[in-house]
Write a structure and sequence with these properties.
0% of the residues lie in helices and 35% in strands. By secondary structure, the protein is an all-beta fold.
């Protein structure tokens, strides 16, 4: 005979994979064309000079150069490569 009570179903056990968002290349670092600088949801950082914006709002370098984070206005930052 079974000596354990019936174990009911649980509602736990689900979790999504982390998406590894954030700044990937710090300000002042040298990047090559195509290097991802920021992975983000929405435009937390805006595009500046010599960078592109992917369809998932990823900011990446278009040229070889140095990453700079600049103030766009009072509340927004833009990312450029020079």
């Amino acid at each position: 005979m079974a000596s354990k009570k019936a174990g009911g179903s649980t509602r736990n056990g689900r979790d999504s994979q982390s998406k590894r968002l954030g700044v990937k290349s710090a300000g002042g670092s040298i990047v090559n064309p195509g290097t991802i600088i920021v992975r983000q949801r929405g435009t937390t950082f805006h595009v500046g000079n010599n960078v592109g914006l992917g369809r998932d709002h990823t900011i990446y370098s278009l040229i070889k150069g140095k990453v700079t984070f600049e103030r766009k206005d009072k509340t927004h930052l833009k990312v450029s490569v020079y």
